[in-house]
Specification:
heterodimer, A: alpha+beta, Actin, Chain A, domain 4, 4 domains, five-stranded mixed beta sheet, 15 helices, globular, B: mainly alpha, 2 domains, binds adenosine-5'-triphosphate, binds magnesium ion, HSP70_C_sf (chain A)
């Protein structure tokens, strides 16, 4: 771990070794892994040369797990145990799941998030996603020939906190070090923006298999500032398939298909939809399990008619995002199309008509997100010192608290630049009230019942006072991943409650640890050895970076402070010599703590220096 | 960790401490500071630096938001000068201002009832014009006349207008989306 990130002339850290980092686009339909090698971003293909990994997981009889094409091939033969589009269930309860997305699975409503019943037992969407991520991690490590230091995982910009947290949990479960959760449209903008070295306002329209995002970005001298984002985290190509599926059922006079047949027909529907991108009409043929043959013809006009409302549904968030960004269509310099579903001609036309310009489609809409994520991973891993860019992203949905009468009080408005913290004070309602229940919500609606519940906790130990006398301050901190931490404090007594918001949805740390150990139980020894290796590498680079920091900015330390840090460095060296994981981590942690104030002072100095340069440049 | 910026938001961005402000200069100073402290710059750093970066980037964003909004900027300048703007406690306003408020409310209600987005948008534009005039006065009161009490009154007025603007925005949104 490099402590010295801000390289100064002549003082840069030890000659730098390329660190293996990847970008992963964990898609509803397809997932990809990409990396930057010799300065160029590229998608890593599988051994057959295929870039896309279908986001399909099948739990087999013998306890094995198949991921990708092998699983996809069996989906209609084994529908209950073959999970497609699992992303639609991330961070979602049973009540959230639409009928279209639900078939043909068997759900149980577990606390936090639904689970799917498979022959391998109930599976959480987090575990299923982790299986996909694990496959991509293996692919990357095999083709790069080493262990990854980290990954940037993309998420739809419109994902809420529960969905983001679930994604991060899945990555941890797959053994990935998450460098950053990155919004998909922002990733696409990096890939585009850096290719074209553009300046100005750009719109990214991203319609994938299961999610729709729109982001409006302002590009200025290497800064990607997201002005606003909007979307629908349950709208995508899958819904177009479902329309075709319903049309086919009606045409053939069918209803209530079994799981096998409905999966079969959905697959046909998707093929028909994709065929209509190139052809004026197409055939849907399927042989159902009762021997009935389906043979229908679907033409482009009919397809356009039955999906028109879906296309319109995407334009609403686009208008909303423009409004939030306070810009008009005339201010938009370019519209970038991302996601396989944007290949549909009537989508391109609708977007083109709205903006009065032909949308940009010069990069492969399937790959652009993964490529952008890889470029960001390369920067975050520290492989690129100069010539960096900066991403300033926003929170997609407002955060608030429940107040009296089932109403929400907004604390952080949507489209605020991250990271952000906000505090709000509340008071007691009754005389002598000693506890207060706190309900954290995300969404734009006024009623609590219309927003997503992120967490509920009780702040106890408020000293009894008359109603309205206590002062309870609740602080929301949202980090650069868009993840929320909430803390509450009673100001007159100092009672403090700190929570990481994830109890309502998502897994606890214990659950993750249990899943990790379950899945790796048989390689326990390996794990111990690996942990030791990692601890040594991390501690050594921390020590190196600390020494470099002292060399550069040691004048910011008093003699005592310097002595303490040097003692900490000594302790790290001793611990490394002792070869014990726990002791090494402990010493590194201690050194980290000792350097906190130093780190802040150095950052402050760098800000001052940067501003000075900046002001001179401006004069 | 108990880090805090000793300097105020203006000096953080190297700007003069006054109401009149070059928006372009603020934007670019913010980007310069953000480029130094954004957590992405410390993604593979130690925990101490990560925490410091999160805190400082959060602080820089907050400072930027405060200075960017004329209302928040004026409020902040008054706060630095030790003047309480009394926005929640002092509701006494000149009669003509209150009359105008009522007229605004009525016009908004009517346009809303008639689902007239164009009328709402026109109201928003009119309101912005009024707000701009108030901001002009604020500039004079704060930067030239040093009339802090007068500025506090203007802040309270501007706050009213901001609430109205919010109301119009919500109404337009509920009609459009
Ligand atoms: N030629 C085509 N014509 C129409 N649709 C297509 C075409 N090719 C792919 N699609 C559709 O694009 C969707 C998949 O797009 P993509 O791979 O970008 O999604 P994803 O990244 O997996 O999903 P998401 O971003 O929503 O999580 C599917 O619905 C697929 O049917
Ligand atoms: Mg996608």
């Amino acid at each position: 771990m490099a402590l010295l990130q801000i390289a100064e002339p002549g003082l840069s850290a030890a000659p730098h070794q390329h660190r293996l980092a990847v970008g992963i686009d964990l898609g509803t339909t397809n997932s990809l892994v990409a990396t930057v090698r010799s300065g160029a971003a590229g998608v890593l293909p599988d051994e057959c040369g295929r870039s896309l990994l279908p986001s399909v997981v099948r739990y087999l009889d013998d306890g094995d797990v198949a991921v990708g094409f092998a699983a996809q091939a069996e989906q209609s033969r084994d529908p209950h145990n073959t999970i497609v589009s699992v992303k639609r269930f991330m961070g979602r309860g049973l009540a959230d799941i639409s009928e279209a997305a639900a078939q043909p699975y068997r759900f149980v409503d577990a606390p936090g998030m639904v689970q799917l019943i498979t022959r391998a037992g109930p599976k959480s969407p987090v575990e299923i996603s982790a299986d996909i991520l694990r496959a991509l991690k293996q692919r990357a490590e095999a083709s790069l020939g080493g262990e990854l230091v980290g990954a940037v995982i993309t998420v739809p910009a419109y994902f809420d906190d529960a969905q983001r947290q679930a994604t991060k949990d899945a990555a941890r479960l797959a053994g990935l070090n998450v460098l950053r959760l990155l919004n998909e449209p922002t990733a696409a903008a990096i890939a585009y923006g850096l290719d074209n070295s553009s300046e100005g306002v750009y719109v990214v329209y991203d319609l994938g298999g299961g999610t729709f995002d729109v982001s409006i970005l302002k590009l200025t001298q290497g800064v990607f500032e997201v002005l606003s984002t909007s979307g629908d985290s349950a709208l995508g190509g899958d819904d177009f398939d479902h329309r075709v599926y319903c049309w086919a059922l009606a045409q053939a006079g069918l209803s209530g298909l079994n799981a096998h047949d409905s999966r079969l027909l959905l697959t046909c529907a998707r093929e028909a939809k994709e065929a209509l991108t190139e052809h004026a009409s197409t055939h849907l043929t399927a042989l159902l399990s009762d021997g009935q043959a389906i043979d229908l013809t679907l033409d482009q006009d009919t397809f356009r008619d039955i999906t028109k409302t879906l296309v319109d549904k995407t334009l609403l968030p686009v208008r909303k995002a423009l409004r939030d960004a306070r810009i008009g269509v005339d201010d938009v310099k370019g519209v970038v199309m991302v996601g396989g579903a944007t290949r549909m001609p009537h989508i391109q036309k609708a977007v083109g008509d709205l903006f009065g310009q032909t949308p940009l489609t010069n990069l492969d809409p399937d790959k652009v997100v993964a490529l952008g994520a890889a470029m960001q991973a390369n920067v975050l891993a520290g492989n690129k010192q100069d010539d960096d860019w900066l991403l300033l992203d926003v929170i997609p949905l407002s955060l608030g608290l429940e107040t009296m009468g089932g109403l929400t009080e907004k604390i952080i408005p949507r489209n605020s630049t991250l990271p952000i913290a906000r505090a709000q004070e509340f008071t007691t309602f009754k005389d002598g009230q000693t506890a207060m229940s706190i309900h954290v919500l995300q969404g734009e609606r006024e009623l609590v019942s219309d927003c997503r519940s992120l967490a509920q906790f009780v702040l106890r130990g408020i000293p009894p006072m008359v109603a309205g006398a206590a002062r309870i301050r609740i602080t929301f901190q949202v980090d650069a991943d868009g993840l929320l931490a909430v803390s509450a404090r009673e100001l007159t007594s100092g009672v403090e409650a700190h929570i990481e918001v994830k109890p309502s949805y998502g897994l606890s740390d214990e659950e993750i640890t249990r899943m990790l150990t379950d899945s790796l139980a048989h390689v326990q020894d390996d794990i111990e050895a690996r942990k030791l290796r990692e601890a040594i590498v991390d501690a050594e680079s921390l020590a190196d970076a600390t020494r470099a920091a002292i060399a550069a900015d040691g004048d910011l330390l008093s003699a005592d402070e310097l002595a303490a840090i040097e003692a900490g460095l000594g302790a790290v060296a001793d611990a490394i010599a002792g070869n014990r994981t726990v002791a090494i981590n402990e010493a590194a942690h201690q050194l980290n703590r000792l350097t906190e104030t130093f780190a802040a002072r150095r950052m402050d100095r760098n800000v001052q220096r940067a501003l000075k340069g900046h002001n001179i440049a401006e004069l | 960790m108990n880090f805090d910026f000793k300097q105020d938001h203006f000096s953080l961005f190297g700007l003069p401490r006054r109401f009149a402000l070059d928006a372009g200069q603020l934007d670019s100073a913010w980007r310069t500071v953000a480029a130094q402290v954004h957590p992405d710059r410390y993604a593979s750093a130690g925990d101490a630096e990560k925490r410091a970066a999160l805190m400082m980037a959060t602080h820089a964003n907050e400072a930027y938001r405060t200075l960017k909004s004329p209302l928040a900027r004026a409020r902040y300048l008054l706060q630095l000068a030790g003047v309480d703007t009394q926005e929640d406690t002092n509701t006494s306003m000149p009669a003509d201002f209150l009359m105008a408020q009522m007229e605004w409310r009525e016009a908004i209600g009517e346009a809303k009832d008639e689902h007239d987005v164009a009328a709402l948008e026109k109201l928003a534009r009119d309101l912005q014009r009024d707000a701009a005039a108030l901001q002009q006065h604020l500039g004079v009161a704060l930067d030239d006349a040093g009339d802090l009490d007068g500025a506090a009154v203007l802040v309270r007025k501007l706050r009213f207008l901001e609430k109205l603007e919010q109301e119009i925005g919500d109404a337009i949104e509920s009609l459009l989306f």
